[in-house]
Amino acid sequence: MMNFFQFDTDENRQSLLVRAGRVALLSLLNFDLEWEKIQFIQLSDAITYKIGTSSKECFLLRIHSDRLGKEEIRSELALLQALNKSDDLTVPEGQVSRDGSYVLEMGYGRGISATMCHDDALGGGRSCKWELYG
User: Fold this and answer.
1) Residues 49-107: tens digit of each pLDDT
2) What is the domain count for the chain?
3) Which residue, 58, 14, 34, is CA-closest to 50?
4) Exposed/middle/buried for residue 89 (C-beta within 10 Å: 0-12, 13-18, 19+)
5) Which of 49, 77, 118, 129 is deepest in the core (most CB within 10 A)?
6) What is the distance, to the nearest Å, from the Cα of residue 37 to the centroid of all Cα atoms in its chain?
């Protein structure tokens, strides 16, 4: 059985991005967002998408591999929340899903999870800025 996050060849990378796109769309169903646009940003230890809403807010959706456990991801979100209390920093802040959780278990029996963060830095508190990411 292939690892969900296997991307050692171009073929595996393309396959991964297709699977991750499906997980991203399923993840969005768990949040109270009227999303209009989804854009792939990057593939690293997580797969990150930028989400634009009808109210022009920006969010980051991250699909996490089993390399990080749920508690580690929660810890990262708690750190971001603490950093956001500073007037000098603007960092993404975790968003709670419809079921009250910050980390969604997305199944596949492989430890795949998803998180959503509100990101004023992407929109500057006004409207979501869209750029091409390479």
Assistant:
1) 999 988 888 899 999 887 778 888 889 899 988 988 888 887 888 899 999 999 998 86
2) 1
3) 58
4) exposed
5) 49
6) 14
